[in-house]
Amino acid sequence: MLLRDRLHARLAEMGATPDYVRLAEEVLAIRNASPALARRLVDQALVIEDRREAWIHLGERIVASAPQTAGVYVLRDAAGRALYVGKAVNLRRRLRTHFAARRWKAIKAEFSRIEAVAWTEVGSELEALLLEARWIRELAPTVNVQRGEPSVTPRIPARLIRDVIVVVPSVDLESVEFIAARATGRSLIHRTRRDARQLAVDIRRLWLFFDAEIADDSSAMDPLALAPIVFSWLAGRGANATRIEIGDLVSASDLEFRLSVALASPQLFSERLILRNSRPAI
Question: pTM, whole model, 2 decimals?
């Protein structure tokens, strides 16, 4: 049964005083909508079939322009409101599934109202996970199931819940992404060029991120506590990622040395690098 047909059937059951909030929740899967918004959404859904051709043509244009790279994307309506945030290994392939003609018969009302798509390309799965979580929290898209801040689960070994910098590929082939995570929950993504001079400039920011004296300074770090996503990834698909545990270091210069060794290694993204106790005695 088409969405429009389901709405007509439920409206007939409700009689002269339909409960639009209930309709929005039960048929459109939209929770906590105000009565006015719920009625507007139901009215839009009742004429959803009229958008089919425009929706298909829009999808063709979007898919043709999307890159075949990993990234995070947001689907928006005509007013610019975020409808859905997702991530993909291949943005073009993922967006093609959103606009597949076969999906129209069972499409959610929100997806029928897509008018634009924006995306950001990323260089790694971990960066995509963090960016997706950030966008969901900041944009509050209506289709995504809203979540609180991620938490550490029992499946994450205690040995992984510590201050760490993970080195992952960047969408910029001349750079890498440093993803820093604190055991207290904060995280930071920082891109740096793969050369010694740029690294020397970036070390101070990374080192200060882990400084206990600024641990409560919200202006110095991500206000979202996304570090559990990093720990969870390291416990699973990221088990072989190159990482540097801050507890093993004694100074910013020590961190600079370890990172310079990592960046110079041809094995940087092919296997985990063991960097402990590798600095020569002075």
Answer: 0.75
